[in-house]
Amino acid sequence: MMLSVVNYFVKLTCYTFCGGKLKNILKEAEKDMFHPTDAKSKEIMTRTMRIWRIIFRFYMTTCISVVSLWAACAFITNNDIALPFGYWYPFDVSSSPVYEIVFFFEVIGILLMVISHVTLDVSVAGIMAFIIGQINILNDNLRNINSKDEIAVNTQIRCFILHRNIKRLVTKLNEMLMFPMFIQSTMGAAILCTAMYKLSKVPFLSGQGLSYIAYYVAMITQLSLHFWYGNEVIAKVRLNIIYSVE
Fold first, then answer.
1. Statement: residue 149 has pLDDT above 50
2. Against a cut of 0.70, is the pTM above it?
3. Are 64 and 114 in contact (CB under 8 A)?
4. Contacts 24+ apart (CB under 8 A), 202-210
5. Transmembrane region positions (predicted)?
């Protein structure tokens, strides 16, 4: 859990210092060029963002389940002074009401951190999903160019401008995410190994075992979130849609 906390604060610090870059990215995404102009474009963007919302709900539910299972395991354990995360405190936590206060302090504190962490990850993934939606719209527009009249020429010009703006947006996002994603990849690998090691030392279907399984799923989701969307951007860009234009 400590590695997850460190990972969170590193990303939070990076995003805080990159606040100006993030504002520029969001300002760039608000350009009229990125607004859907017809029903087909709106449908493409809606479908892309719907998938992002499903992933967000799954990720948030999994992370909250992890905290709930850890709290439940500590609550029902035979040890009367068990705490969810077992942090060290410079005072005695075995007496009441200190124990109850510390117990809920840990649960609420970690829960708020988890919600904030998920929000950070999903917000960045949302920008990536937006870019994927724009690439899908661009590819669809190029695919539907089948004439050489004035309307087709204007469509091509809009496609070129849209491509240039998408490329600028991707470049800015890549500059902002380079270091946070490096830290997340490094710590994520260590966290996954630690979670599997701890899972091997407890009964698989026990409360602790289920909490480690949920934690493992949450970490896999976190690592896959940005990598999957990043791979989607690369895959969409590599499509040879331009060669289907007549």
1. yes
2. yes
3. yes
4. 207/69, 207/72, 207/73, 207/76, 208/73, 210/69
5. 54-77, 97-115, 177-197, 209-229
